[in-house]
Amino acid sequence: MDNFLKKGERIEDLGLNQLKIIQNPDFFCFGMDAVLLSWFVSQRIKGLVHIIDLGTGTGIIPLLLYGKTKAASITGVEIQPPLVEMANRSITLNGLSEKIKIIEGDIKNPGDEMIPNYYDVVVSNPPYMRAKAGLKNNCETKTISRHEVLCNIEDILIFSKRMMKDHGRLFLIHRPERLGDIMSLMRHYKIEVKQLQFIYPSIKKEANLVLIEGRKSGKPGLKTAAPLIVYHEDGQYTPEIYDIYGMKRPE
């Protein structure tokens, strides 16, 4: 196992069906948004679906979706070679090479391994910041993960329209301030927004994340799920967050 890890890496237990992931703080480690998105997806899909995760990073969403769904196949696409290599080692670590496939690729120029009109579900936890917005991190990997340097929301929608089956479903997590543009672009690319769920850090703060479900060639009709509050005023997780993480609630 010592030879399996590289300098600076660690193995984290995901607390789900004994699944583990390799992380390196020098790169972009997964956060709550990936956990929330995986939960959101798992609550809304059934059966042996084919899933593709865009910008999979170190493979956290494919691993969580494997643990939470009965997907027939899960593919993760990542443009950064070091993250692809790390994700593949995590898949090997869990013995899931036949269930989860990690592809090095660019969604703007998908290769033959990505099949048009094939996927039932497209998932993405994309970069939130516009390319010129905010302070960019000195680490290129973190900059690419946080800013729309190599792909933006429109690229994700173009890919989804091409690669999803008719009536396939797209799931995103993003910032509420980008929601107007996202919904407009989704309708432009014939992906109808069907459900939103806003995430609030606490009851007294504004929403800082929104979960989005869209359907290719779907009919108009939008529902909003009950808001999800992350923290009580005392700083403890709410019961909903404990349940999403699969953690035991404190007495």
Automatic annotation (TrEMBL):
Gene Ontology BP, a term: methylation
Gene3D superfamilies membership: Vaccinia Virus protein VP39 (3.40.50.150)
Keyword Transferase: yes
Keyword Chloroplast: no
MF terms in GO: N-methyltransferase activity; nucleic acid binding; S-adenosylmethionine-dependent methyltransferase activity
CDD domains per UniProt: AdoMet_MTases
Domain called Methyltransferase small: residue spans: 49-133
Keywords for this protein: Methyltransferase, Transferase
Protein name: Methyltransferase type 11
Organism whose genome encodes this protein: Acetobacterium woodii (strain ATCC 29683 / DSM 1030 / JCM 2381 / KCTC 1655 / WB1)
